[in-house]
Amino acid sequence: MRARRRPRAALTIVACLGDSITAGSPLWDPDPAVRDRIDAPDERSQWCWWAARGRPGLELRNHGVYGERTDEIAARLDSAVRGASSLVVQGGINDVVQGRPVEEAARNLAGMVEQGRRLGLRIALVDVLPWSNGDARSASEIARLNTLIRAVADGLGVPLLPFHDTLVDPARAHRMRDEWTADGDHPSVEGHRLLGERAFRLP
Questions:
Q1: Per-residue pLDDT for 171 more than 80?
Q2: Cβ-count burial of 159 within 10 angstroms (0-12 exposed, 13-18 middle, 19+ buried)?
Q3: Cis peptide bond N-terminal to 187, omega within 30
Q4: Number of structural domains, the chain?
Q5: How far is CA 67 from the centre of its chain?
């Protein structure tokens, strides 16, 4: 008599929603048309790729789009979470780059958390990385936005993934360490590895 195979455990599908930090720029993009324009695409240039390694029960789906502000990211939430049971919300740097009020960005992020909750999802929120190519104004705005994001996470009772502190250069508080950034704007492959292995935690 042939032994019955045990059914495979269902994967936990995690929608990773964000901007180019989630997409994997400059070495990767989840959109094949964008990826075709990259000279040497490297799938390891995604924090969600590293987060999935060693976690066989998780399937992390990359819904990052280069250059998007938080309001633009929010507009894609419903389509991104189809079939998912968990959601990671990342964004805010493009609001800072474009001079948008950080209070508005924080409200957009809070709105995504609340929308995800209404859909019955487990949710984690991400803070904003240091911007090595930025100036004093952007550094101040990132610090303000991260304070607001922390307050959103605490107020709504969701985990905050510490991307900023994972890649910050202790000697230069408003920059990523040189080996952890590909271009001063985005993490390097090593930076993504650290985000996926150290900063990523689901409740």
A1: yes
A2: middle
A3: no
A4: 1
A5: 13
